[in-house]
Amino acid sequence: MLSPERHRHHRHPSPPQPPPPPHHPPQPSHVVATIENLPAEGGSGGGRSGISAPSSSVRQRIRKVLNRDLLLSVALGQVLSLLICGIGLTSKYLSEDFHANTPVFQSFLNYILLFLVYTTTLAVRQGEENLLAILKRRWWKYMILGIIDIEANYLVVKAYQYTTLTSVQLLDCFVIPVVILLSWFFLLVRYKAVHFIGIVVCILGMGCMAGADVLVGRQQGAGENKLIGDLLVLGGATLYGISNVCEEYIVRNLSRVEFLGMIGLFGSFFSGIQLAIMEHKELLKVPWDWQIGLLYVGFSACMFGLYSFMPVVIKKTSATAVNLSLLTADLYSLFCGLFLFHYKFSGLYLLSFFTILVGLILYSSTSTYVAQDPRVYKQFRNPSGPVVDLPATSQMEPSVTYTSLGQETEEEPHVRVA
């Protein structure tokens, strides 16, 4: 028996209706889809998920900042600082315990090692990477760079005879603005606000260490002609900055072996001349024995390791990041001096150390980028990101390439225009 509803349809048929469209869940527009469209972890909006969402977001942000590459870059920078600490300790023993004041001879030993390892490597290569081929194209540039590197080391060491340790530590930070300016104008590196905040935090940590030195009375140095000493430090820091920026350019665009081989060639030549003119009498006064020989070997090993390893770290990070990392070298020397030389301890030293590390993490947490201009500078390739070919347009737009160690491009929401 038909129900009244079906009976009415049977007696009075209506025109056929089109079938209703299939129901699809609403999809967010690709153009406006952002992180806000994503559901919160642990379910929809209320209850305990709403409470855990902020803490989960904080954890994700911390994991994003403290990623593996960032921690690796910080660790590599601290390896360089430890090598500088070894250089400082061996130099202190040589000058104070054995009265061997031979900074030029010590640098000469390092350049000889670079020559024996890297210059000979270039000599046996074939083609355009051969030593003679490089000298034909760029010999005068590497000659200038070698002289800059030699005199940078000499000026800073010489400054200790005229000014105090605190002045050297503070004024040596002048290398950081030098590197930033040279990177901006010649490498076309562009910085963000967080980079400048990180740099300021690092310099504040360095000032905290200098203040601690004053409080505990650790102001070594005669300081009799402080102006000359301060000018020597500023000159050495400027030359260090020029050398570091040139090194970054060479290791990114040419090769690490070429840079070290040319520095070994011209550094050993010109430092040998400087040694013969300025330090031959001091070298004759050295009371040679096995202990002094061991200290020279230790110094040369640390110096050779620093020169060999620094291009690797600069290529992975940047010259600015490396110089920020090296600010902790004085603190490592101080911590060793607490046991070896019975330095006085202050809690400000620990505060200074962690302040510099925080500033370094802030600097490394966000990407810098390179404003590309093929007329001025060759393109930096970012190996971690895909290369996208953009269609040619009638209007030229500035192009940038991000060169951070971070993983920003992988974690950002994908926005696509249909």
TrEMBL record:
Q: Which UniProt keywords apply?
A: Membrane, Transmembrane, Transmembrane helix, Transport
Q: Which residues cross the membrane?
A: 70-89, 109-127, 139-157, 169-189, 196-215, 227-245, 257-278, 290-309, 321-343, 349-371
Q: Where is this region: Disordered?
A: 1-30
Q: Mostly located where? A: membrane
**What's its membrane topology?**
Multi-pass membrane protein
Q: Which GO terms describe its molecular function?
A: transmembrane transporter activity
Keyword Repeat assigned to the entry: answer is no
Give me the stretches of Pro residues compositional bias. 14-28
Choose one Gene Ontology CC annotation of this protein and give it: membrane
Cell location = Membrane
Domain of life per record: Eukaryota
InterPro entries from the xrefs?
A: EmrE-like, SLC35_F1/F2/F6, SLC35F_Transporter
For bias kind Basic residues, which ranges apply?
1-13
Entry's family note: Belongs to the SLC35F solute transporter family.
What does this protein's UniProt record list under function?
Answer: Putative solute transporter.
Protein name per UniProt: Solute carrier family 35 member F1
**Species the sequence originates in:** Cyanoderma ruficeps
